Amino acid sequence: MCGIVGYVGEKNATPILINALKKLEYRGYDSAGIAVLGNDGIIVRKAKGAIKYLVEKITGEVVKDSKNLSKEECEKAEAEYERQIEKTADFVKGNIGIGHTRWATHGEPSDINAHPHTNVSGTIAVVHNGIIENYAKIKNWLQSQGVVFKSQTDTEVVAHLINYYYEQKKDIFYAVLQALKKLEGSYALGVVCKDFPDRVIAARKDCPLIVGVGNGENFIASDVPAILEYTREVHYLEQKEVAVLYADHVDLFNEDGEKIIRKPSHVEWDLSAAKKDGYAHFMLKEIHEQPKALTDTLRPRLVIENNVPVDIKFDEFDFDENWKNAGRIVITACGTASYAGMVGRYAFEKFARIPVVVDAASEFRYRNPILKKDDIFIVISQSGETADTLEALRIAKKCGAKVIAITNTVGSSVSREADRIIYTWAGPEIAVASTKAYTTQLMCLYLLAIKMGEVRGTIAKDDYLRLLKQLEEIPEKAKRIVENQPVIQKFASEQFNKAKIFYIGRLFDSASSMECALKLKEVSYMHSEAFAAGELKHGPIALVDNSTLVVALATEPALYEKIASNILEVKARGAATLVITQDCSGAFKNCADTTIQIPECENDLASIISVIPAQLFAYYCAVQKGLNPDMPRNLAKSVTVE
Ligand code: M6R
């Protein structure tokens, strides 16, 4: 939610900042801006809309839209765009700067509300991610001191507040520290000051911020991909830490200005992970990466003997007495991650015979939750930075729970604050709509549930070994589904104009339906909902008419007949119907209009792959509508504010 970057070094900062912002555009894209410290002071350039409009504003050249271009034309347009970004160096000159891509909270998306914001004289500039909760109070006070505000943002108060303290001692470090003491809420901040043209100051509380340590140059960024091109050595700033970056070194401080000595961490990521690699969009690339992501997540946790999986083990922790004697599993997360939790509920109940509560983190945090001593508390978060999930984690810890986190992001806040971490080795997920992170979250949950069943004696040894073997085959089955892409693409081209899409299913499939419906609404803006199939006739069927597509997930043979009846009921009311199933006996031949076959697998594991056709369907509906699935309107990848 908002991306910030900063640079200090020998090179021209402008193209570096813009390129870094491009890699963070998934965090927000309603406006962008930079502030560069040149010979004549701070130069600020801002523009409403995507980063390309900022480039246009700086260079005065139109950036060609790559929509509806052939692959070749697209590559040409991309190369031209890169040249135009380089050209920005001719217009905005300086070796130090900060940049921002915005997801609006306070004030509409506009040039004026875009960051950076400055003090009245334009000598201090600030970029900010987060929300300053007491901004109105500070703003009133500053206005009473005669400060005139230009924007509607909460961030502008930070620039004026720093200026207020700067006037006391003419010391920018002192001024930032004093201002931070007055701020309530969350922030990741980048600050430059005309009178200190050798440094960028950065600080964080409840929003992610990393410092990239380069060779004769240093960086700040909200996320690793932004700076991976320049360095793999990073400091993950801790809560309330402040960093001062010079070209040749970085100093870290605590909130009281005391120096902290810490070595940077090395980032192992593959650089190509942050590129599209010839795919039209990151979302499509990430859907295709699922077989590998699933293998990478599963393999290190399978104990193999003579080429056969014989056990599950997590290096991160032992399945001790706590697992054996647990009374409940409590899962808390947001959005897609919470839907992974819903599937996880069926898995834990099925394999470990343990009651499970799944809660939206945004509800959990305000409900004065009841946690018991023998609960196992799990949070799930791709980014590891979701504000509600983090708060839920902290509340659970305060209640005495030991928190297990399933996350995709090494070094994230969730990974640092949880007691035990299980990484989904999905690699960086750039598209806003989660795909590979979701299926790898499911893989982790299944591993936990099955192992817990073994530890508690609720799964017989033979069944345990069979499930392990079946799990091992899941990535290959996922691969066969993504290879079936043209069939789903064609289906999307026939259905993308439907007014309503309902996903239905029973048991595991009812949980999976929620994620399928979310994916579609996120990227195609089509009205889609999920219903437990048995609930249809208790109300939702009133919505069904000939503008409706009903998609049934059917992976439980014992319930095929029930699903077939649901299909006939909605067909009788004019709906088009699709069944996604592993059945090959023809159970839906005489009822569904279309059937998409997924490879046969253990019924209870099918959820990991049955979602993939729905991901592809969502993707192709968006493309058919001329939308950019990587950057759906109003959304941001990492929701670091409440
Ligand atoms: O990073 P997290 O997994 O904590 O994010 C949670 C949700 O914000 C996220 O899953 C959101 O629903 C995605 N846009 C789903 O595609």
What does this structure look like?
The termini are close together. Strand 16 and strand 17 form a beta hairpin. The chain has three domains: 3-267, Aminohydrolase, N-terminal nucleophile (Ntn) domain (Glutamine Phosphoribosylpyrophosphate, subunit 1, domain 1); 276-482, Rossmann fold (3-Layer(aba) Sandwich), CATH 3.40.50; 484-630, Glucose-6-phosphate isomerase like protein, domain 1 (Rossmann fold). The chain is α/β, with parallel strands linked by helices and 642 residues long. Helices cover 37% and strands 22% of the residues. The strands form five sheets. It has an eight-stranded antiparallel beta sheet with strand order 3-2-4-1-10-9-11-15, covered by helices on one side. A seven-stranded antiparallel beta sheet has the order 5-6-7-8-12-13-14, covered by helices on one side. It has a five-stranded parallel beta sheet with strand order 19-18-20-21-22, sandwiched between helices. 5-amino-5-deoxy-1-O-phosphono-D-mannitol (M6R) is lined by residues 334-337, 381-383, 386, 389, 432-434, 522, 635, 638-639. One of its GO terms (molecular function) is carbohydrate derivative binding. It is an enzyme of class 2 (transferase). It is found in: Cytoplasm.
